[in-house]
Amino acid sequence: MHERFDAIVIGGGATGTAVARDLAMRGAEVLLVERDDIAASGASGKNHGLLHSGGRYVVKDPESAEECARENRVLREIARHIVEPVGGYFVSIPPDPLDYADKFVEGCKRAGVEFHEVSTGEVLREEPNLNPEVQAAFWVNDAAIDPHKLCLLQALDAARCGATIKTYAEVVGLLFDGETVEGVRVLDRAKRTVEEYRAEIVVNAAGAWVGRIASMAGITIPVTPNKGTLVVIHRRIVNHVVNRLRMPSDGDIIVPHHTASIIGTTSVNVEDPDKAYPTEPEVLKMLRAAAEIAPAAKSARMLRAYAAPRPLVGGGAGREISRTFRVFDHELEGVGGFVSIAGGKMCTCRLMAEKLSDLVCKKLGLRASCRTHVEPLPGAEREVDVEAEAKKYGLYNALVSRAVSRWGSLVSEFLPKVVERPSLKSVVCTCEMVTAAEVEYALRETWARSIRDLRRRCRTTAGTCQGQNCSYRLAGLVYEVSRRPLEEVLEDLATTLRWRWLGMRHVLYGDQLRQASLVLAVYNCVGNFDRIFGE
Fold first, then answer.
1. What angle do helix axes 147-160 and 451-458 make, rounded to 10 degrees?
2. What sign does the CA torsion over 293, 298, 301, 304 have?
3. Containing H/E element for 358?
4. Can you give the pLDDT at residue 22?
5. pLDDT value of position 2
6. How far apart are CA 146 and CA 283, in angstroms?
7. Separation CA 342–CA 355 (nearest Å)
């Protein structure tokens, strides 16, 4: 690996990977460092997977609404294989104020958000689980997108353009002489070694941690970590994204995502972004709010809850802060070789990267223009004939269809392997219908090291059983492919289950508690977990 680069990007979330892709496509020598896995720590990987139409912000935050509307159209083209164009509704349910509808219409027109009014009868036919007291409804072009895969594919495309991607590489210091940032000091968390890398420009795209990184150069960035808590329901209780037709508030949106529904979200400022956890009152609040929208939520099984910190720019209460973004050129503050970016949304990450990369390229003397809005991400280059692929490789249509929904045309890089090695046809995760071929590909080609990394790529352990049936199989594949010491793989398995429990602990009552007790019994009886790892 080179020890000197044109640009070093700190952060492997949506913005960081988008910046690495943009700069690499323009010809820069790029290193991206991420302290965990791609899209593992912050809001990029822990959101509701909504590809915003912009409708949510048209009244209160029109600048963010316009950005979302524009990037919605771009991502539908360049990442169409990971976008499910479900559409969305904004619905007014008592006691939502009816006069908000007029403000919503005017805001959509100004921001360029696609919308049209629909009758209450039409929306109830489309959404039979919806509260029948709907008093007004509008259609918007919301969609669902896989946020983990968006970040991964941006990183993968950056690597294919020459960028170097280092995960589990934590920045522990900046190479700073008091005037210029010349590089980073990185802890390799796998090797437990500290290495130094130098660059002309260091890009701080660390999300909610952007202020912490900036402080290493004596700079203060007005970023407010803001926690959003979400709850996952085990099935789709709505067919389209459903929003409340009112000012944004807690629990006012349900997003159908893969095989589940995601209820969101809270907006609470936090001091430490590393301690942004859901609480039981927040979870119960989300569930009650979802039941107001769709009463079926009352009887649905909650799989888990999770939370992540948003990197909002500015001060004040969470919902008072704009969701737009800001680029910081620290040369204006007397610190050379250092730029930062904060704020924004997952769905505006490409636009954010374009604006920041324009600045970086100007400093580097690169004249190439941005192409990220027209170049497809890996897997979106062509459509896949699911039936033909299934017939060619002797697989069920459903298996191939689900693989294509996760990888698009990249399935051509792992499905042919089943011809030479039929054992790769075996289904590792029955909830999400994942084959051994897909898991092996993720481990070999996409920087996956652990079972949790595989969840972000293949959705293994994310289904109804929450890893009860697939974790052992995944551990076996991690051991076979990585050849890591057995003790490390066993600890990986234990860590996976601990994180699953962390997300489940706030929804453990009634049938959910009995199901969790069964899972614990399975692991203790079949795997001796109580003896291997203790209480």
1. 100
2. positive
3. helix 349-364
4. 98
5. 52
6. 23
7. 12
Query: Rounded mean pLDDT of 345-359?
Result: 96
CA gap 136, 241 in Å, rounded: 16
Q: Is the pTM of this model over 0.85?
A: yes
pLDDT in tens, 215-244: 999 999 999 999 999 999 988 999 999 999
- Burial readout 449-464 (b: 16 or more C-beta within 10 A, e: otherwise): bbbbbbbbbbbbbbbb
Cis peptide before 229 (omega within 30 of 0): no
Question: How far is CA 85 from each of CA 3, 52, 242, 278, 432, rounded to the nearest angstrom?
Answer: 43, 11, 13, 29, 20
C-alpha distances (whole Å) from 36 to each of 40, 49, 166, 172 are: 6, 20, 9, 13
Q: Is the pLDDT of residue 335 over 50?
A: yes
List of residues 6+ apart from 125 with CB closer than 8 A: none
CA-nearest of 437, 122, 88 to 242 is: 88
> Can you state the percent helix, strand and coil of the chain, rounding each to 5?
45, 20, 35
> Hey, is 535 helix, strand or coil?
coil
Q: Does position 424 have pLDDT exceeding 50, yes or no?
A: yes
The pLDDT of 178-187, averaged and rounded, is: 97
CA-based torsion, 60, 63, 66, 72: positive or negative:
negative
Single-letter amino acid, residue 107: G
Distance from C-alpha of 156 to C-alpha of 30, rounded to nearest angstrom: 13
pLDDT tens, 477-506? 999 999 889 889 988 988 888 887 777 787
Predicted confidence at residue 533, as pLDDT, reads 65
3-state secondary structure of 187: strand
Mean pLDDT of the chain: 93
The pLDDT score that the predictor gives to residue 1 is 47
How far, in whole angstroms, is CA 517 from its chain's centroid?
30
Residue 512 is predicted with a pLDDT of 75
Burial (Cβ within 10 Å: 0-12, 13-18, ≥19) of residue 170 = middle
- Give counts: helices (H), strands (E), the chain: 17, 22
Q: Can you spell out the DSSP letters for 447-487?
A: ---SHHHHHHHH-TT-STTTTTTTHHHHHHHHHHHH---HH
Amino acid identity of residue 25, one-letter, is M
- What's phi and psi for 254, nearest 5 deg? -125, 125
Q: 197 and 4 in contact (C-beta within 8 Å)?
A: yes
Position of tokens 């076979």? 480
- What mean pLDDT do residues 261-278 have? 92
Dist CA 37 CA 492 (whole Å): 14
Q: Which residue has the higher pLDDT, 517 or 372?
A: 372
Note whether 91 and 123 are within 8 A (CB): yes
- pLDDT band at 318, cuts 50/70/90? low
Cross-strand pairs, 507: none
